[in-house]
Each structure stands twice: as C-alpha cells, then as structure tokens.
Amino acid sequence: MIAKPAVRKRRRVYPPEVFNEIVRLYNQGLSSREVAKVVPMSASNIAAYLKRVGLSRPRGYALTLRSVRNPFESTHWRTLRCRARKVWKRLVGPIPDGYHIHHLDGNPANNSLDNLQMLSASDHAKLHHPANPIPRGRRAARVRYQKEYMKTYVRKRRVVPAVPSLHSQPALGA
Hints:
Layout: H1 16-27, H2 32-38, H3 43-53, H4 59-69, H5 77-91, E1 99-103, E2 116-120, H6 121-128, H7 140-152
Antiparallel strand pairs: 1-2
C-alpha cells in the first residue's frame, strides 16, 4: 500500500495593512479578542503576532482595562471586591492576612491600580465607619427617648411592712 503524502495547510498571507490595524487597535486599549472581531484573523493568531512584536500586556492589565472601559455585568459588592483583590494580586503581589483593598473613589467597579489602596482591617473600618464625636448619652435621639421614658416611668413606692412589736401580739395560750 502506498502512503499518501501529508498535506500541509497553506498559511494565509495577510497584507501589511492588517498588521498595522492590529497594532493600532491594540494600542487603543482593545484586547486581542476585541481586535479579532474587527480584523479577519483569530484571537490566538493576533495574540501570537503581538507577542512576537513585543506588544503583549501583563495578565492583570486586561482586567484593569475591562473594569474601566466596560464594567462587568455583575455589580454585586462581593463580586466587585473579589475582582479588586484579583487585580491587586496580579499587578502588585499577595495581600497579607488582615488587610483589605480599598477603592479610593468609592466606586467598586473601578479597579484601576491607581484607584486601589491596601489598608489594614482596622484602618479600613475606621475609614468607612468613623467614631461619633457626640457622647452616647448626649445624642439627640437618646435624650428624646430618655425624656419620654421618664414621663411613663412610674416609681413604685417600696412598702416596708411594719414590724410587729412584742407587746402587741396576743398570748399564745389564751
């Protein structure tokens, strides 16, 4: 039996304008997947070309771009908190135990690195829940409550039973 020769696929040759368009779109902030929707080439080929050219980004950078340019569908606070921690870990490094990631502008969907700050748990709590400068007993609601309570509070007099004297008791045998 005669073996068939292996058939090699011919590589598709793209004009230089396509590669210039890839670089232009990638430099505008689009990911390789988003560039693949515009340019007639697969995302993996675009990523390989960009890597050969030396234009690849760090892994966490795409998360940062995505959160600023197009926020995630989920706006649940826990999902956003996890994404902020993930961005911090990829771009800065590990987060020690007892530390939180704080959003400086207060927007949990904005996970750019210049908007994130690592704080200890106690500092983070103090930042979000500052101590009330008015003492507890002097707060307006408390004072109103105390006044209303004192109006309805009736002091019961303590009735002390009279101690019978020895002379006033009748004799037992009579």
